[in-house]
Amino acid sequence: MRVTRSQAEQNRQTVIDVASRLFRERGFDGIGVKDLMEGAGLTQGGFYKQFASKDDLVAQASRRALESAANRWSTAAAASPEDPLGAVIDFYLSTGHREERMDGCPVVALGSDAARQGAEVKASFEAGIREYLEMLGSWVGEADGDAPGGKAMAVLSTMVGAVVLSRAVNDPDLAKAFLSAATAQVRKAVAA
């Protein structure tokens, strides 16, 4: 049975969505094409009709994951217009976000993997990171411009690092301590 163009595009978007979640859970090299396609409910045979290579899918799934993460930031901020940064800090540095392996921040889940990828994947991450910095810059009072401000960079670095470290340890008290310490430091830095 032949697949319509519309169905083929829908299948392609499904594969990108599934890959964006599975890559965050398992890493770029932690899952193969066959398992990705099975996760999307499709056969492996259709993969190369939809993507030039696994690297092509990695770049597109990374872009999708970063867009999704930025949307989550925007949603948290919109829910608390009187303190958008506080809402993002509370969401991002929470134990709930720490536990979201498939839907959590792609920079946390895949940052070190992305550093070993090609230019297209790095470009996806750079665009997503720049979007984070733009949002943070608007909330910490830094002017718009080509170069992100130091305060936004410090806040983002602290937040990402805290979630990475909290995921890297077995001790739940230590994991929570990383998140709590980062919350306190970010709030202090923003208030200064």
List keywords for this structure.
74% helix, mainly alpha, 10 helices, Tetracycline Repressor, domain 2
Mind explaining what this structure looks like?
The chain is mainly alpha-helical and 192 residues long. It has one domain: Tetracycline Repressor, domain 2, CATH 1.10.357.10. 74% of the residues lie in helices and 0% in strands. The chain contains 10 helices and no strands. It has helices at 5-26, 33-39, 47-50, 54-78, 84-92, 95-99, 106-114, 119-140, 150-168, 172-191. The mean pLDDT is 92.
Short description:
With 192 residues, the protein is an all-alpha fold. It is 74% helix and 0% strand. It starts with a helix and ends with a helix.
Helix content: over 70%
Helices and strands, in N-to-C order?
HHHHHHHHHH
Beta-sheet strand percentage? under 5%
Radius of gyration: 18 Å
What kind of sheet is the major sheet? Answer: none
Distance between the termini: 64 Å
Provide the domain count.
Answer: 1
Level-2 CATH architecture: Orthogonal Bundle
CATH class (first level) name: Mainly Alpha
Principal-axis shape: elongated
| CATH fold name | Tetracycline Repressor, domain 2
- Using DSSP, what is the number of strands? 0
The total of helices stands at: 10
Q: What is the chains' assembly state?
A: single chain
Unreliable runs: none
Mean pLDDT over the residues: 92
By CATH's scheme, which homologous superfamily applies? Tetracycline Repressor, domain 2
Query: What would you call the structural class?
Result: mainly alpha
